[in-house]
Specification:
single chain; alpha+beta; Rossmann fold; 2 domains; four-stranded antiparallel sheet
């Protein structure tokens, strides 16, 4: 849920400017820009390999852009990645949990998106497992 201050402001919840990403010398995202206001729905359309998933992965912090800026609720992802990550939730179209992992291992893997300190990871996972009786 977004805070009232963000809903009432003109500050976009997502603003990406000039995003570029290359893999093995091939530019897969080329100067992409996005802007999404609170309450707005944004969709990316394109052929397979057009860079949609790569663009989203840069926006939620799984990949770093080679160029460009990403701001989440006014926070520059490069300047304060932890604060930006705390304001993003990701729901992929496919199941993202690994059935071969334990619950603890899945939580550990997912926690790496947010780059917490190792001691914080262990304490938080232990608290969650206890809270849900796992």
């Amino acid at each position: 849920m977004l805070p009232d201050s963000l809903i009432a402001s003109d500050e976009p919840v997502l603003q990406a400017t000039g995003l570029v990403k290359q893999f093995a010398g091939r530019r897969v995202v080329d100067e992409v820009g996005l802007r999404c206001q609170a309450g707005q729905v944004l969709g990316l359309l394109g052929a397979n390999g057009a860079g949609k998933t790569t663009t989203l992965r840069m926006c939620y912090g799984f990949l770093q852009p080679d160029a460009g800026t990403i701001r989440i609720a006014g926070i520059d992802r490069r300047i304060d990645p932890e604060a930006a990550a705390r304001r993003v939730g990701v729901c992929t179209q496919d199941d993202t949990f690994d059935a071969d992992f334990t619950v603890r291992d899945n939580l550990l893997q997912m926690s790496r998106y947010y780059r917490p300190r190792p001691a914080e990871i262990k304490a938080r996972i232990a608290a969650l497992l206890e809270r849900f009786g796992l």
